[in-house]
Amino acid sequence: MRDLQDREYYSPLDESDRRSRLRRLDDLLDALEDMNMREQGELPPRLRDRLLIEGIAVNQTASVTDLIDMVLSSQEQYMLKERRTGPRRRRLTFVPTDDDLVSVLTHRIHH
Question: Total structural domains in the chain?
Fold first, then answer.
């Protein structure tokens, strides 16, 4: 199963480093969610230090939910990315107006 997954997903980071960083961020997320459930307002100094070590800047005005969002955002860089295969879809460089859409549809109906 792992070989199939290796072909479909990848990460530019070393696997053990990626996993350990995710584990540390998960631990921080658990601690913050516990604080949120208990409605604790003050961030313990030890937790603040752990957040800083992981590169999450903590300011005085950040709420626990703000910190949870920051940890979740930090985890994104360590998540596996899906390997794209096959042709890529062309992205629209403009958003057509209603008049543009009506014109195209009218043209297609009459031809």
Answer: 1
Q: What is the pLDDT of residues 54-79, one digit of tens each?
A: 999 888 888 999 999 999 998 888 77
Asked if residue 44 is part of any domain, the answer here is yes
Measure CA of the first residue to CA of the last residue in the chain; give whole Å. 51
Q: Give 88's DSSP letter.
A: P
- Its pTM stands at 0.61
* pLDDT greater than 90 at residue 29: yes
Distance CA(73)–CA(111), nearest Å, equals: 50
Task: With residue 34 as reference, give the H or E element that holds it.
Answer: helix 15-38
9 φ/ψ angles, rounded to the nearest 5 degrees:
-130, 155
Radius of gyration of the chain (CA): 23
54 phi/psi in degrees, rounded to 5: -85, 5
Is residue 74 in some structural domain? yes
* Structural domain containing residue 45: 2-86
What is the pLDDT at residue 103? 86
The whole-chain average pLDDT of the chain stands at 81
